[in-house]
């Protein structure tokens, strides 16, 4: 990204040229027909002012000539009528053709970004910079679709200015050069405007993101309802108002600076054009030439003014467009591997993880091992280090010491696609995808050719099959009331998430509180099912409920990032220690 302080005039020109080239390249490939039409129309539009000079001179020459040639007179008149009459229409049609190019580019850019985001490894998505870049790239799409039109405008203006210079130069070189120079104040001003915007926009964008996030909490059904029930929505609304006000003040400063530079550019352009007109007047070139050149200069003026905006927009778009390019390039080429590969043994050896800026390790010298067919549990209070251990196993977090192996093969973050395919992960913040039931469960596997029977088996194992059978459209039922679909309870959503893991059928299952929202009866059934078919896989469960731990082959008790006890449920229960302290209340006989 170009640092605003470094953005000299030549750098700004370079940035605008690079952004224009990229925009033209994409437009020629993805919206080729409409872009070609836009280019031809823009060229015609750009040639109108020089053509006016030429045609007007011929017309006035014919009018003032003692021996008029009616054919020449008529031709000049017709040419001028066409040029002036169609000028606006050609400009409008060029704009519309550019918009139609932009539509195609918008489709292309968004689809490309969606696939790039889908190809990101979990570890990269855990990096806040990556999610910010994704949002910036998404926001960049709208201005990027307008970039080819702006690039054409820029090229068109250069052609207009050069054409005017050529048309006028022959009878007044000074006037011709001054007409060309009239472009300069705009370019210089826009360079400074681009610098102001490059400096001013990042804080505005940050404030707008915070404001949009707060607004989203008010608009989303779950958080909006909670805030309405709490009667505290106005606090979030105040936050929106505060952020928005700050954004307004920051943006206002940017626009004020823009206005100052715009005014300076207008004065500079006017002075240079006045000088060009004066040069015409003092040149003994005759009234016809002077009148023609004056008309041409006046009609070229508007094109020059608009170009300033196009130039400024292209420069200020550059950092966002670069973020888009980087995001889609970095994330590509991810191989899709079908899950299902079995794993014999998973081993964590002396793992230590420290988050950046943290005073101590979140996980300290942790070792554990689990064989195929075993089901183990990680327990401990909030913040004890269970999720960090899991995130290290799946390569979302990297440790500062220790190793993790699957079947003696060391695995490292970020995981390669083959290793990732070995895991089936149900996290606490599982997704509530409001698609059809078939599609929601199908998200569990990258395979496309699973059968309805396999989905039903997964749904039944997750104890949600009965509810889906009751729905009129079965697997085709649309979920989510906002789409006119069926609403589900929190526990039912969690069961669907578990059904995804069943369909995935990976070699290593990691279930982080898989039944936290599920009632006790269904929870018992789900754990019974997990025990029943655990033999073909490795299962690691995080649970806070004592009785779900009874059937575990081993329980690892975490405390302050360390494993302080290991054993089966009955072993741990019968010895004093952290486990007994943690679960004493849950296990004490109820009065
Ligand atoms: N991304 C992070 N950056 C910095 N510190 C973190 C991060 N994630 C977790 N921590 C800290 O690491 C420690 C262990 O957290 P972890 O999420 O592993 O605990 P946990 O046992 O899974 O807790 P819970 O039962 O609440 O899920 C905590 O002190 C937590 O504040």
From TrEMBL:
Cellular component aspect of the GO annotation: plasma membrane
Domain ABC transporter: 346-585
Cited InterPro entries: AAA+_ATPase, ABC1_TM_dom, ABC1_TM_sf, ABC_transporter-like_ATP-bd, ABC_transporter-like_CS, P-loop_NTPase, Type_1_exporter
Cell compartment(s), UniProt: Cell membrane
Pfam families: ABC_tran
Membrane topology field: Multi-pass membrane protein
Domain ABC transmembrane type-1, residue spans: 36-323
Keyword Transmembrane helix: yes
Residue intervals passing through the bilayer: 34-53, 73-95, 151-171, 177-194, 263-281, 287-306
Keyword Metal-binding annotated: no
Keywords: ATP-binding, Membrane, Nucleotide-binding, Transmembrane, Transmembrane helix
GO molecular function: ABC-type oligopeptide transporter activity; ATP binding; ATP hydrolysis activity
The protein's name in its UniProt record: ABC transporter ATP-binding protein
């Amino acid at each position: 990204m170009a640092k605003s302080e470094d953005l000299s005039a030549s750098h700004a020109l370079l940035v605008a040229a690079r952004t224009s080239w990229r925009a033209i390249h994409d437009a020629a490939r993805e919206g080729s027909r409409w872009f070609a039409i836009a280019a031809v129309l823009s060229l015609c539009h750009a040639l109108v002012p020089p053509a006016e000079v030429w045609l007007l001179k011929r017309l006035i020459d014919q009018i003032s000539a003692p021996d008029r040639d009616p054919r020449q007179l008529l031709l000049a008149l017709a040419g001028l009528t066409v040029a002036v009459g169609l000028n606006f229409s050609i400009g409008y049609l060029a704009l519309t053709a550019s918009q139609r190019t932009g539509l195609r580019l918008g489709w292309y850019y968004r689809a490309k970004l969606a696939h790039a985001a889908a190809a990101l490894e979990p570890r990269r998505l855990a990096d806040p910079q990556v999610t910010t870049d994704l949002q910036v790239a998404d926001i960049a799409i709208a201005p990027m679709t307008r970039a080819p039109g702006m690039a054409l405008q820029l090229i068109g203006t250069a052609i207009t200015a050069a054409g005017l210079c050529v048309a006028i130069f022959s009878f007044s070189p000074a006037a011709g050069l001054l007409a060309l120079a009239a472009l300069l104040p705009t370019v210089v001003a826009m360079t400074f405007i681009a610098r102001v915007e490059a400096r001013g926009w990042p804080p505005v964008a940050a404030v707008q993101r915070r404001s949009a996030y707060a607004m989203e909490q008010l608009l989303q059904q779950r958080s909006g309802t909670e805030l309405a029930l709490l009667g505290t929505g106005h606090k979030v609304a105040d936050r929106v108002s505060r952020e928005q006000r700050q954004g307004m003040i920051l943006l206002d400063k940017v626009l004020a600076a823009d206005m100052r530079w715009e005014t300076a550019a207008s004065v500079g352009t006017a002075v240079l054009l006045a000088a060009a007109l004066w040069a015409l007047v003092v040149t003994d070139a005759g009234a016809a030439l002077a009148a023609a050149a004056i008309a041409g200069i006046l009609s070229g003026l508007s094109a020059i003014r608009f170009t300033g905006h196009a130039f400024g927009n292209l420069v200020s778009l550059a950092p966002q467009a670069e973020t888009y390019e980087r995001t889609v390039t970095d994330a590509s080429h991810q191989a899709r591997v079908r899950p299902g590969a079995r794993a014999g043994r998973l081993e964590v050896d002396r793992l230590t993880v420290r988050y950046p800026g943290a005073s101590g390790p979140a996980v300290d010298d942790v070792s554990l091992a689990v064989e195929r067919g075993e089901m183990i549990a990680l327990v401990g209070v909030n913040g004890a280090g269970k999720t960090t251990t899991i995130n290290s196993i799946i390569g979302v977090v990297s440790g500062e010491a220790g190793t993790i192996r699957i079947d003696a093969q060391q695995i490292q973050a970020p995981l390669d696609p083959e290793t990732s395919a070995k895991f089936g992960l149900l996290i606490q913040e599982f997704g509530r995808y409001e698609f059809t039931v078939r599609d929601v469960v199908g998200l569990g596997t990258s395979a496309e050719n699973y059968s309805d029977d396999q989905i039903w088996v997964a749904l039944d194992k997750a104890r949600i099959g009965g509810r889906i059978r009751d729905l009129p459209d079965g697997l085709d039922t649309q979920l989510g009331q906002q789409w006119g679909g069926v609403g589900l309870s929190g526990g039912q959503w969690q069961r669907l998430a578990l059904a995804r893991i069943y369909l995935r059928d990976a070699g290593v299952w990691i279930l982080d509180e898989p039944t936290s929202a599920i009632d006790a009866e269904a929870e018992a059934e789900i754990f019974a099912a997990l025990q029943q078919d655990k033999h073909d896989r490795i299962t690691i469960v995080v649970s806070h409920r004592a009785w779900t731990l009874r059937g575990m082959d081993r329980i690892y008790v975490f405390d302050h990032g360390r494993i302080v006890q290991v054993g089966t449920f009955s072993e741990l229960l019968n010895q004093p220690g952290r486990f007994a302290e943690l679960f004493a209340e849950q296990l004490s006989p109820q009065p």
